[in-house]
Each structure stands twice: as structure tokens, then as C-alpha cells.
Amino acid sequence: MSMAATMDNNVGVAAMGGPTLGNAEFEFLRAFVYEQCGISLGEHKRQLVQGRLVRRLRALKLRDFQAYCDLLRRDPQQELGELASAISTNVTAFFRESHHFDLLADELLPRWINEKKNGGRLRIWSAGCATGEEPYTLAMVLAEALEKHNANGLDAKILATDLSPQALETARKGVYALERLEGVSVERRRRWFLRGEGDYADYVCVNPRLRELVSILPLNLLHDWPMQGPFDAIFCRNVVIYFDKPTKQRLFQRYAGLLPEGGYLFLGHSESMYGLNDSFDLIGRTVYRKRSA
């Protein structure tokens, strides 16, 4: 038996630079994350989970992974957002997968605004909004469409939700490094962002008009949803890649319940609804429209 194998699973191994994630703790975390977040962690994710959660142990001043698991058992919700944020990768950008926003600007928003401007409401949900780039991109496109079609008085809002407290904090602040605007045109940069000064010269803040259009709230997609809908469109991009087939099926069915006939669901470039739900038709690149009953 090797020396490492004879050591306590929870005590740090010097070569690993911190506490070691033992079998019992990893199995608990796998079950906990699947139940609470719908994320399926394979055995090959052990080192990734250990490496990312070591930082949480340090932040919480916990000696080992057993203490961390005990914290989750005592109060699952207290640490859930931080745990989910640590083990998932929040990759996002302004105007990421720009064809989705082109469809909104060129076809969908003009139609919806025309239908609703004499009395109605327009709602878009950014589910899994991460640090806010997606909902603020939606807000730019929406604000421009409202102005173009003389509908600034329309009741139009964007709901942005995520499980990660850190991501939501960034989204609420609406402050981004200038380099994050790579996908934003010069014209839009000038119109929708305020440049920092002095120590903040390399940062921008989103225009207050965009903040007016976006409501940012914490939400676990696997738990109860307080909103009733309906939404004209739901963006859930690069979220379901972490879920197994049964979880995806349940989530897509719930989305279908919040969309009217003809409502739209946008997925990420590596995601598909094929074989998972028969309530939608694929009408474009990862763009789905809810079928008529």
C-alpha cells in the first residue's frame, strides 16, 4: 500500500498543496450537487472539484472537506450558490452568439412591439445570467428597438437570474473591465457605457437606462420559480450542458409552461433539445419556437 493511501483522506497532502478530497466526501458532494443543482459530476471531475473548493475552505477557514460537507448538511442553502459557482464555469460575453440578438432586433422585437404597444407587456428571461453581460446585451437591443418604434412607454422588462452570489453581485454593479467590450460596436460603447476616470479609467459602467430594463434576482433553476410568466422569450444558453438528460427534460418542460404558443427559447451553441421535448420546433441555430397546441 502506498504512503498516500495510508493517510487520512481528509488531511492535506503536501504535494497537493491543501486538503485532499476523500472518497466519502466526494460521493457526498456529487449527490448534493446533483440534487440541489442538477449538475452531474463524473469521477473525472474529482481533481477539478478539489482544486476549486480548496479556495472555499480557505475562505471559510475550514480544516478539511469533511468540515465543508458538515456545513452543507447543516444549512444547504447557505453555501449552495458559492458551491455551484466554484464547480461550474461562467463563460459569457456581450453579444455572444450574435445571431440570436440579430433575430431579436430584426424580426422578433419589431413584431412584439407592434402587437403590444397599445397595451401589453413584453418580458424576456435571461436564465443563468452569470455576470450580467447577456441581460445587458438584451437591454441594449430592447432599448434601441423601443426607441426606433416609438414605444418607450411600453411595459418591457428583462428578468436576469443566476444561482451564483458572486456573479449576481457583478451583474448588479454593472461595472466591467474595458476589455470585456470586445464584442460591442464603437457606437454602442459610446451610447450604453460610461467610461471610468482616474483609477477606473480601464473600466466602464452600464448606462442607467439599461439598469431600468433589467431586474436581477437569485434563482435555483431546480427549485420553485416565483414568477408566473408568460415570457416572450427565454435565454438559457450554456446552462444545460451541466445537466443530465432527465434534468434537461424537466427544465425544458417547465420553460414550455412559461412560454405562450409561438414563444421562443434560445440555447447555447453546443446545446440541443433533440429527443428531449416535443413542445418546440427548431427554427434557427439553437433557436426554438413553442408549437401551437
Automatic annotation (TrEMBL):
Entry keywords, A to Z: Methyltransferase, S-adenosyl-L-methionine, Transferase
Binding of S-adenosyl-L-methionine, residues: N90, T92, R96, E134, D162, N220, L221, R237, N238
UniProt cross-references to CDD domains, sorted A to Z: AdoMet_MTases (cd02440)
Enzyme Commission number: 2.1.1.80
Lineage of source species: Bacteria, Pseudomonadati, Pseudomonadota, Gammaproteobacteria, Lysobacterales
GO biological process: methylation
Catalytic activity: L-glutamyl-[protein] + S-adenosyl-L-methionine = [protein]-L-glutamate 5-O-methyl ester + S-adenosyl-L-homocysteine
Function: Methylation of the membrane-bound methyl-accepting chemotaxis proteins (MCP) to form gamma-glutamyl methyl ester residues in MCP.
Positions of the CheR-type methyltransferase domain: 14-293
Keyword hit for Phosphoprotein: no
Record flagged with keyword S-adenosyl-L-methionine: yes
GO molecular function annotations of the record: protein-glutamate O-methyltransferase activity
Name assigned to this protein: Chemotaxis protein methyltransferase
